[in-house]
Design a protein that fits this description.
Length: 264
C-alpha cells in the first residue's frame, strides 16, 4: 500500500469533522438541536471563534442551520452535491486577527510619512462610505480601498499588494455567511466612524494613535462577528421548544471528544 501524504487540518476543520461524524452516526438527527456554541467551546476546550468557524463551515455544507435566538439545528443532507470548499481555507477569525496585527503596524508607519495628498485620498474614500447599502459589492470595495490606501502611503508596492490580498481573502463562502448574519447598515456606520479615527491619527502624524485606532477597528470587527448566535432565547426553558423551531433533543447531548487545542 502506498504511503499517503499527511494532510494538515486546521483546528476549525477538525471540529467540523467531529460534529459531522456525530450527525452521520445518528447521535443527532434531522431537526435535533446541537449544543450551544458556548457548550461546544467548553466541551472541546477551544475558543468560541474556532467553534463558530466550524459551525459556519457545516452550515455552508448544508448540514446545519443556525437560527439566531433559537439554536443550531441539524438539517437534511443537501440533495445536490455542494461545491467543495478547500480544506486549507483560512478561517474568518484567523484572517481578521492577522489583519489586526499587520495593518496596525502599517498605520503606525503611515502616520510618519503621510502627505496632504494622502489625506485627501482617505477623505474621498470616507465620503463614499457615507452612502451605500451594506453589505454589497460596492461597500466592500470601498472598505478595501480604504485599507489599501493606508498601506499605499508607505509607497511600497509589495506591502500594498499584500494588504489587498489579505483583504481579498474575506471573499470566501465562510466569510460571506458570517457577513449575512452580522454585517448591516449599523456595522457599516460603526466601521465608517472607526476609519475616520484612523484617518485623523494619520493626518495628525500620531504614530501611536494610528496604530491603536487601526488595531481597535479590526478588533471591533472581530467582536461584531462574535455576537451570540445559535444560543437559545432567554425566555426558553432548558430542553424546551422555541416557537416555530424544530424540537430540540431532550436527552443530554454526548460530549464531543476533546480536540487538539490550538489558536484560531
Amino acid at each position: 500500500m502506498p504511503i499517503a501524504a499527511i494532510e494538515p487540518r486546521r483546528l476549525y476543520r477538525q471540529v467540523a469533522d467531529q460534529l459531522r461524524s456525530l450527525i452521520d452516526s445518528g447521535e443527532y438527527g434531522v431537526g435535533d438541536r446541537l449544543p450551544t456554541e458556548r457548550e461546544l467551546s467548553e466541551s472541546l476546550g477551544i475558543s468560541r471563534p474556532t467553534v463558530r468557524e466550524a459551525l459556519i463551515a457545516l452550515e455552508v455544507e448544508g448540514r446545519i442551520r443556525i437560527r439566531v435566538g433559537s439554536g443550531i439545528y441539524v438539517t437534511a443532507p443537501p440533495t445536490l452535491v455542494p461545491v467543495p470548499v478547500p480544506a486549507e481555507l483560512d478561517g474568518p477569525f484567523e484572517l481578521l486577527r492577522a489583519r489586526e496585527l499587520v495593518e496596525s503596524a502599517v498605520s503606525k508607519e503611515a502616520a510618519a510619512c503621510a502627505t496632504p495628498a494622502d489625506i485627501e485620498a482617505l477623505d474621498a474614500i470616507l465620503a463614499l462610505m457615507e452612502d451605500g447599502s451594506h453589505p454589497s459589492p460596492e461597500t466592500i470595495a470601498i472598505d478595501r480601498r480604504f485599507h489599501v490606501t493606508v498601506a499605499g502611503i508607505l509607497d511600497n508596492a509589495v506591502l500594498t499588494r499584500f494588504i489587498g490580498e489579505l483583504f481579498d481573502q474575506r471573499m470566501t463562502p465562510y466569510f460571506e455567511r458570517l457577513s449575512e448574519y452580522f454585517e448591516t447598515g449599523e456595522s457599516w456606520r460603526l466601521a465608517h466612524a472607526e476609519h475616520r479615527l484612523v484617518r485623523n491619527a494619520i493626518a495628525a502624524g500620531d504614530a501611536a494613535g494610528a496604530e491603536a485606532t487601526m488595531r481597535s477597528h479590526l478588533k471591533k470587527s472581530q467582536l461584531r462577528f462574535q455576537r451570540g448566535f445559535g444560543e437559545t432565547a432567554a425566555n426558553e426553558t432548558p430542553g424546551g421548544r422555541t416557537p416555530g423551531a424544530a424540537t430540540a433533543k431532550t436527552s443530554r447531548p454526548s460530549r464531543p471528544k476533546r480536540t487538539t487545542t490550538g489558536r484560531t
